[in-house]
Amino acid sequence: MKSILNKISSFFFFIVFFHFANAQVGINTNNPSRMLDVEGTMKVHNLNDAHANADYDQSIVTDSNGNIDFTKKSSLLPSGNSNNTDKESFSQIYNTTDGNGDGNKILKCGKFQFSLTSTSDSKIRFRLNDNPNTQVGIYMNMEQNWDSNGYQFFQGKSYYGTPSEKFVFDSTNYTAWQNLAEAQLADFEQNVLNFQYPGDSDFYRLIIYRIKQSVGSTPDSRDFAVVCEKF
To answer: Are 220 and 212 in contact (CB under 8 A)?
Structure first.
């Protein structure tokens, strides 16, 4: 251990010495182009997880020449300008051996949360992320596609409903799941839902797919894919 510490101390002494002797230091290069120029790889251990620390608001970036600098995390986010075509995508893919959806798996997308019921028909349900502090009505349309060229399209809360039907949330029920009555998943079925939040400029599209998997002699399982896009 002492030998290792001595080597580390010697290394940093070398760096500091050459820092003052020659403003630029090169490792494996005789022509350093920056204060420290390393020709080779680098390894760092025991880093702290600072994702929840607001003070860590910068990310390290490099150019094609290996120059290392930083950029603000905020510059990597969508601009928020309504004239731009920003898009965010969120997804969740998982497998179950009983053929049912997993009600404990929740996909968060913008102002919404989505999940599938833990039942054989794996119904689609949703709720709000945050308290709306007032009553809001969510209008939705949906198309269902299944094997044997099956197809249906409906607006509102059910296939037999009217386009004016809406899902109502307020401060008392925004955390409660609301099921889309006809939105159940059969094997190899794909559902596509389109909707908006009242007064919001974002447009949402939710795509849900269920497929049967068979490997050798093991019992059939199901893969579920839930993808939400926010435009």
So the answer is: yes
